[in-house]
Amino acid sequence: MTDPIADYLTRVRNAVMARHKVVEVPASNLKKEMTKILYDKGYILNYKVLDDGKQGLIKMALKYDPATKEAAIKKLMRVSTPGLRKYTGYRNVPRVLNGLGIAIISTSKGVMTDKEARNEKVGGEVLCYVY
Prior knowledge:
The protein is an alpha+beta fold and 131 residues long. It folds into 2 domains: 4-62, Ribosomal Protein S8, Chain: A, domain 1 (2-Layer Sandwich); 76-130, Dna Ligase, domain 1 (2-Layer Sandwich), CATH 3.30.1490. It is 25% helix and 31% strand. Strands 4, 5, 6, 7 and 8 form a 5-stranded antiparallel beta sheet that branches. The two termini are 26 Å apart. The model has no long low-confidence stretch (mean pLDDT 96). It comes from Marinilabilia rubra. This is Small ribosomal subunit protein uS8. Keywords: Ribonucleoprotein, Ribosomal protein, RNA-binding, rRNA-binding. One of the primary rRNA binding proteins, it binds directly to 16S rRNA central domain where it helps coordinate assembly of the platform of the 30S subunit. GO terms for molecular function: rRNA binding; structural constituent of ribosome.
């Protein structure tokens, strides 16, 4: 697989469009950190990391509005790809929908949101936008 992060985002995006309650993705340390951010920011209900003896799995419970049945995740967009990496300094960290969404950034201090990167005054690779 050439781009595991794009595969992760595509699996979640497809599960949201198909109105699935749970989605499973192969685990890696970067994907675990991204899932933790999605959970902390309220885009998913819960997640569990399962050990299957090999790579492991991340099982995520997707979040929907009980009244309108609308998903919490409206859009997941990959920014930096293996063919064209997108890096940013801390002064130019992108705002997603004027702060309503989040950008997930891989920095030297770990994976964090755009707001945390601005507060820590650290830049890095912009992985994806979520709103």
